[in-house]
Each structure stands twice: as C-alpha cells, then as structure tokens.
Predict the 3D structure of the following.
Amino acid sequence: MGHGTLEWVYVGVVVAVLIYIGADAWNVERFLDDAPEEAEVVKVTGQQWFWTFEHEDGRRELGELHLVKDVPYRFEVTSLDVIHSFNTPDFATMIDAVPGRINSIWYVPDQAGEFLIQCREYCGFSHYQMRAKLFVEEPPGGAEQGAQVTNASATTTNDLIPPLGAAAVAS
Amino acid sequence: MVLEVRKPRPLWEILFSTHHTDIGLLYIIFSITLFFLGGALAISIRTELFLPGAQLFDDSNTFHRVFTVHGTTMLFLWVIPFAAGIGNYLIPIMVRYKDMAWPKLNAVAFWMLPVGAALVWLGFADTGWTAYPPYSILRAPGPAAEMWIFGLKILGISSILGAINFVVTILRMKHPDLPMMKLPLFTWAILSTSLILLMSMPTFTAALIMLYTDRLGVSGFFNPAMGGDPIAYQHLFWFTFHPEVYVFVIPAIGVIYEIIPKFSRKPIFSYTSGITAFILLTIVSFASWAHHMFATGMSFSEKTVFMIGTLAAVPASAMHIFNWIATMWGGRIRFRAPIAFVVGGIILFFLAGAGGVVNSAMPLDFLTHDSYWVVGHMHLFLMGIITFAFVGFIFYLFPLITGRMYNERAAMVQFWLMFIGVSLVFITQHLLGLYGMPRRVFDYVPVEPLITMNQISTVGAYILLVAMGIFLFNLIKSAGWGKPANMEDPFGIQEKYYDYRRREPHH
C-alpha cells in the first residue's frame, strides 16, 4: 500500500471510533439532561464555605441533606458569593454553583446510607473543607413510593466510580 | 553562532545582544531556570498531600498561592519561552536568513519575560492560574492579584511580539529559493503556534483589563452584584487558553519531527500529512474552548457543539502519532537520549489523548471535571509529551549550543526515572479523580484509596525530583567540562546536523 492509502485507512478508523464515542455520549446525555417532571425540587445554595438546602415543603437544612431512597430529585443550585461546585461523588453528579444563575441537576438516590457532598470548584481559604453530609433514608411506606421511576442511564453511571460512602462522611 | 560556552564572551555582550542565537540562549536558560523553580513548588504541593492534614504548610492560603504560581510558571515561563528559545535558534537557520526579522523587537519580547516573572513571583497570588471571578475580583487578596494580572499582561504582550516576529521571519524573510513546501516541519510548527497566539492572545489580554477594572470596582463585567456575568470571563479565558493548549503542544510536535527522522535514519513518512495536521490543529483549536465549561450550566446543544469541536482535534493529533510511528517503522534507530525522550513522550501523548476523549464525552465530563483526573490529564500533556520532547531537544541541541557532549548514561538514567515518575504521579491522579478527589485541595478526606494513591503520587514526584537533579548536574557539568563534540555528526548517526559554522556578526 502506498503512503496515502495506509494513512487514509488509519484516519478513517480513528474518525469512526470518535463518531461512535460522540454518538454514544450524545445519546446518554440526552437522557441525563432533563429531570423527570415529578422530581422533587431541592434548592442548593453555596456560600464560602458551607452548603444550605431548602426542600419543596420549606424545610431548610444546613450542612446536611436528607433524601429518600428511589425518589427522583432535581437540585437547583446557586451561589451567594463566588463560584462553587455542587458535587456528590457517589452519585456521579456535579454542577457549578454560579452567583446570579440557577443551574439544575438531578438524580435518583438508589442506595441508602451516608454520602459526601463537597465543593469541586476552587473558592478560597476553606475550599477543601466545604463539605456536607448526604443522608439517604429508606422510604417510610415501603419501596413503592417512587420505585417506578428508575432511569437506566442514571443508575448505570453509578458503577463508574467506587463509593467513598460513609467512611468519608464520618471523617 | 555556536560554542557560546567554549568561546566565552563577556556576559554583558550576550545580555545586550539582539542576535537571534544570543536571545535564543537567554530564552532557553531563563525557561529552564523557571522550570526548576516551578518544579520545586510542585514538590512542595505533593509533600503537602502525602498525608491528610497539614504537612508542610500551616494553612491553606500558602498552599493556594503555591499551586497558582506553579501553574503560571510552568505554562508561561517554561513551555512558551522554551519554544520561543529554540525557535529563535533554529528558525533563521531553517529559512536561511541572517537573523529574525526584527532583532530589537525580539530582544524586547525576551526582556519583558523577567519583568512579568518577577511580578508573578513577588505577588504570589492565590487565585489559581485560571483566576475565575467572582473569587478573583471580590475575595482574592491584593496586591498579589493585581501583580498577577499585570504580570500576565506583560507575558501576554511578550508572546504576541514574539509571535509577530516569527510569522514575519518565516513568511517574508524566507530565502526566495526555498518554497514553503520544503521548509522543515519544525518551521511549520512554529508558524502554526505563532498564528494561534496572534489570534487568541488579544482576547485574554482584554479579559485581564476587565478583570482589573472589576477589582477596582469601577466596572462590573464579571461581578453579578453589578449585573455582570462570571461565566463571560470563562468564555474569554478559554477562548484564549484552549488554543493555547495547542501553542504548548505544537512546538513539541515540531521538535519530535526534527528528532525522529534523524535518529531513525529514514525520511519522514509523510511530510504533507504533517503539514495538513498542523493546519487542521490550528483551525480546530478554536472550536473547542467551552469543553472546559460543561459544568457551568451549559445547554444540551452547546455541549454537543463543543464536544464535536473537541473530538475534531483528535484525528489531526492521531495523524502526527501515525506519522512518527511510520517514520520509525523499519528505520535503523540509534537509541540515544533525544529519541528515547521522544518515544517516551509519544507513549504518554497517546495516554493523555485517550484521557482527553473521555473528558470531552459529555456525561463522562461530569465525572472528571475539576477532579484530580483533570490534573493528571493536563500534566500528562505538559509533563508527558511537552516536557519529554523539550528535554530530548535540549540534549539534541546541546552540542550546537555548547560545543560539548552531555553525559549519555546520565541522560538515559534520567529518562527512565522521568518515565517511571511521570507514570506514577499522573496516572495515579487520574484514578484519584475517579474516586472523587477535587482538584486544588489543601487536604482530603482520610479514607483508604485516597491516602495510598496520594502517597504513590508523591513518591513519583520524588522520583522526578531525583531525575531533575541528575538533569541539572548533567547540564552544568557537561557544559563546562564535557567531552568536545564532533560538530559534523555529534551523535554518530551519519545524519546532517545543524550548520554550526554559520556565524553572522553579533550586533
């Protein structure tokens, strides 16, 4: 084969792999971008250097967040001072908390337990300590409350990162 | 033009010279010095993270200042000046002109660097090298942040002046008998780099002024309390600094094209595909800036557009890798230090590129963004391919500059230590990111996988420290007391070396 042919074959293979990756990413992100309509809204506010949460029923929490297992939640994230980033590593979600904007992200907590919420955008002196605790509790009336809403793509991404879980919260 | 060290001239004659080799020498010495200083900061960062809790620094503030200055130094005071230095040395030779197009402008461009470096190092700002507002305009302590802004401003103007000089030298001062399509690929690399710099840098210099007036409180471009938008800064910043990634990497690609054919003793596999890939990279480098901002709340269609723009850069990079491998294939390779570094760099380039594809795929970006994955990824580029290629090229240019040979055995020991060190530090950091460790943290949650992996990463950093100690010793010892090189063919590979006898009068 001449120089040209070999190189075109090679470039063709690379482009084909990239198209596959791009199409797959597009397909997954399409599902992840919009929260289900029945999702409960939690307002998340970042400040130097703590998180506050406000539930739909007006309950407010500081530094900890209580959620119910298998219920879809949509988090409306904003900040009061500088840019923070609302990150729950165990549920593979993050979105920046930008002052003057409301960004939203959603997930269905599919495991009960204690998890870590942290800030993932550099925000000054105590950035490394800007953490909160996430408690996911079993639904009170058994599992039927929100169990019908399980989005396949939301749960499969969880397998990609190993859980830090309770050990991280306890420290 | 060579033997600067064997036939010493008074120091002031080099310092006040406008000759391209003198300025090239100053650029190279300056950038290597700052590379070692920035490396010292990196070692202190890794020492701090060896164990959870405060280790080296009393509080996080010092730590934040250290990583800011480390990043700024490595990008603006090592990678860019070094590329300008080797460009100064070689471009006039390659285009067969007596000097750069504007020698005095060349000297001015160099002498702005120490001023900018002094501002950055004396200020020691804590904004992070990206200096995102509103932190950098509302909360970052002055005068450090102001000094950082002005330092970067000066460095930016310096690289714009250097870029203009290179473009004009290559396009206008080229010997009339020398067609563009016969120029070495290194010249094309410097041309692409300079064009990207010229097109992208003005945006950031404008953003710096806006940042400064915002800090003064007279404007509110990025201040949400005054109706501004902090995300606007990120767009301006990454519009400059995503193309800037190619400004960092394209000179490294160019030096690899210089080294590989010589040491494989075979012509380049496909010269035209090399040029095509350079032009493609120059264009698509402007199509992908917002992939740094997927997590700022971009819409689905914005993310899709920038994912495609990012993936479009991959075939061009892959063409370069293919070209290198095909050139080495079937060649009679002499594994001296320069090509050893280059081959190591290509392996790390491939890993870094594969990690980059992961970053750009939209759902995966939210796993990796702002985590240690990103730290590992960009260092695999900057330390992996760019520094490996540059160190290899330092050894390749060593006889040209000093007239002496470096110590081959020490260089090979350094290569293996660097390769092992870089793999330990930065591949481990990819995993740390997947475990959820955010970047730019002074401390981390003391749970098991994080502690062990941070320790592996720190051990790797110390291996790099040893490698750099050997490097420094090798450079100083060989420059002063090394074996005189055979200037016709210093590496014994029966290939033409640069014409060391050409000596235009210094002026």
Remarks:
- The radius of gyration of chain A is 20 Å.
- The helical segments of chain A are 3-33, 152-156, 165-170.
- Strands of chain A lie at 40-47, 50-54, 60-62, 64-68, 73-79, 84-88, 93-97, 103-107, 113-119, 131-137.
